[in-house]
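Thread: Newbie trying to understand structure tokens

Hi all, I'm a second-year student working on a class project, and my supervisor (Dr. K.) asked me to get a predicted structure for one chain before our next meeting. I've only ever worked with sequences, so writing a 3D structure as a token string is new to me. If someone could post the tokens and maybe explain what I'm looking at, I'd be very grateful. Here's the chain:
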Amino acid sequence: MFTVTQLAEKIGGEVVGDGSIVITGIAPADGARSGDLTFAEKDSYLAAAEASEASAILVPAGFNSATKVLIRVENARVATAKVLPLFFPPETQAAGIHPSAVIDATAVIDATATVGPHCIIGAGVRVGQHSVLMGGNHIGRGSQIGDDVCLHPNVVIYERTQIGNRVSIHSGTVIGSDGYGYVFDQGKHRKMLQVGYVIIHDDVEIGANTAIDRGALGPTIIGQGTKIDNLVHVAHNVVMGRHCLIMGQVGFAGSTKLSDYVVIASQSGIAGHLKLGTQATIGAKSGVMRDVADGETVLGYPAAPDKQAKRQWIAAAQLPDALRRLKILEKRVVESIPL
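---
Reply by user tm_fold:
Sure, no problem. This is what the structure looks like when written as tokens:
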């Protein structure tokens, strides 16, 4: 628990009201109880927070309340992200190797790392300081895992994968599986061996049941700070820049390149060998078939610039009425022509 003043000091906020009030938790306004901190980003949210039982409210600068203690911050959502770990600290894992783990004699596991039940670690693998393999993880030969990495249960890492520091990969995800490569030869599809690997840079988070294929020859690369949601497929030799956001059920074909700060909304498909520019944004359920320029937003299938796509949608919605009016005009024209 913390006083309001202590919380404000930790997040760089300003207290308005009684800073000695003790805060024991954090909750949304509709579920807040006495002792809870809640947050409000706009006036309607502030009204709901004031009507709740919450003891204090995180608000942006300029907000006031006659009934509640406030902590004013520059950005209430960012401040909430900073507060949450104070009340919900990450689970700590005891360093050591579970007796059921199978580890090759040539693997190097840092003494501060945790290797959970039924993990299999191949030849030449390195696991860095304070990294955690929670259980059921298979780490292929020659893979490198940095410091403070967390592999949730049943994550599979194929051979020669390189994972940086502070990376989190959630359950069921597979890193480094074969890319989808075949050539047609004498009436059948001959497999093209995928002999590349995957590089995941620092501070990446990858959701559950995602598949990132290794490169056909060189690497598939996930850039620093990029966050990938659940159920995403990244094909061979895709290169993602820094701090991209990839939402659920997005699929990438091979060799597409993303610059920094690209945002791709759910259920979009990105064709192969494209370039998405810095701060490009792809709307939900879009089919991207061409390069996207820096800062451009595209929508739809096939994806088009956002304003153009919206005009097309409005026009399509008007088609039934336009057809009805066209039939009326056709009838009038026919009736006006003498037999």
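A couple of things are worth pointing out once you decode it. The first helix runs from residue 4 to 11. DSSP finds four helices and 39 strands in the chain. Feel free to ask follow-ups in this thread.
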